[in-house]
């Protein structure tokens, strides 16, 4: 198999994700854009000018219908990936948002920020559910398959586990 080289971003690519069903790849960049690439030899892509500041992370939902971005503009944004249409912003961080992830059922998003917090969002209401403060600047964040636990890794070298049922950090 020949590797594909997909050219287009004007600055560093910060994150990539692969669509769970379709032959599509999504990428985010310091150039403030998100690109949705067709995994074909010609590498056609759609460009979404997602934010006015760098996009630090991008993830598809488990069914591929949505994607979420995390940006240095202190926000996450939710888009419909099929229509490439903006849906809502998740606002509440006080510094760069560096990581984001969907719950398996795509009803919640976890975001991590340089403000040293991890926030869990209800994306239907566009509201914060819980915030874990003073825990290090998150670099990666993921839900467990049941959507009851979130793990984050931070710049301080620590991995933290959050129980969403109790609203507490367990490790």
How are strands sequenced across the largest beta sheet?
1-2-3-4
Task: Write down the domain tally.
Answer: 1
Q: What fraction strand?
A: over 45%
CATH topology name, in short, is: Methylamine Dehydrogenase, Chain H
Rounded mean pLDDT is 93
Structural class: mainly beta
What is the first-to-last residue Cα distance? 43 Å
SSE order: EEEEEEEEEEEEEEEE
- Given the C-alpha coordinates, what overall shape results? globular
- Major sheet summary line: 4 strands, antiparallel
Describe, in short, the structure shown.
0% of the residues lie in helices and 53% in strands.
Can you offer a commentary on this structure?
By secondary structure, the protein is an all-beta fold. The chain has a single domain (13-140), classed as Methylamine Dehydrogenase, Chain H, CATH 2.130.10.10. The chain contains no helices and 16 strands. The strands form four sheets. The chain has a four-stranded antiparallel sheet, with no helix packed on it. A four-stranded antiparallel sheet has the order 5-6-7-8, with no helix packed on it. A hairpin with a 4-residue loop joins strand 11 and strand 12 (127-133). It starts with 12 loop residues before the first strand and ends with a strand. The mean pLDDT is 93.
